[in-house]
Description:
The protein is α/β, with parallel strands linked by helices.
Amino acid sequence: MPDAITRPTPPATAAAWSRRDTHPVNIGGIWVGGGKPVVVQSMTNTDTADVASSVRQVADLWRAGSELVRLTVNNPESAAAIPRIREKLDMMGVPVPLIGDFHYNGHQLLAAEPACAQALSKYRINPGNVGFGRKKDLQFGQLIEFAIRYDKPVRIGANWGSLDQSLAAQLMDENSQRADPWDAGRVLREALIRSALDSAEKAVEIGLPRDRIVLSAKVSGVQELIAVYRDLAQRSQFALHLGLTEAGIGSKGIVASSAALAVLMQEGIGDTIRISLTPEPGQPRTQEVIVAQELLQTTGQRAFTPMVTACPGCGRTTSEFFQELAKVVQNHVRGKMPEWKISHPGAENMTLAVMGCVVNGPGESRHANIGISLPGTGEAPAAPVFVDGEKKLTLRGDNIAQEFVALIDEYVEANYSRVAS
Length: 421
């Protein structure tokens, strides 16, 4: 008889992965790179000058789990609003670091609004539009000098959609002289990477330490992003920010982001991520934060909230009750997690199962910390509950959802140490 196949167990924590060695960057108390867990960030889509709306959205993003939040700073009104936004967030007990997103006129805005320069925890600079012609190096240097003066890190973020055209033209000319010229796509990828790397080296020459620089080189295609970041990771030790520049709307944006970022993170590339989803009409901005967390959790990088394994349904599960219960359970644990994170640390590692029939229900439920196997079509109206692999009790009647949720709360109380308040 052949030997039994031993299946490898995927790593459960960030520490189990082989991470690329990068310079650690302190962004308002949140560490990015240097082997630290991958950080989730997001960006507002409010008018930054509308202080009330911006404060509300930043707070919502932070409560959803965004560890860094970026805001557009594009005119004098938005720059003047930043310190007021910071003050109101502090009064609300929302300590999330704020990042200023600058294009074209950042040097002017920071000069005119020193309170903005101080209130921000990081500046984002796009080398493709920081300035043009002879003004480019001057204005880039001014932004770096502000970062040095106020002791702030920067993200030097090159972007496919606003590529440095002079650099692209230079590399195209150089390519034409090659004995074996590259294709145009490779030349443009090289221009994107060089834009980020050359700008970072200029910042270092001016006096910004390497541990205050994060790089990004964003494109909108999955394979292009993977190729760019693999190359970028080989050519520097700067911390890297990952994300498609425009992921798209709905399932397209989620799938594209997951396809690209999962591959890179599996290779140890990436220190902070953003899922740049176009919000569907009526949907909250926080969806991009949830997707980022779920991507990190399902790939074994970090744990944010208990994971719920749920049956997809088939002809054996004509009732929709298991779907409704799965939603109730998912919403319950996500809603409780901000409290549990403080009072019962470790609860985010809990696994749950909501299964719809006898085929896989008991087996999946035994694999979870707490699982329930609901009756499928024609099965006895009973729902066995398994706790840490052992059948604990059977639920029946009209209150299964409430009783199962209560069991989850009891499990958390019993198995994750309560922190004294």
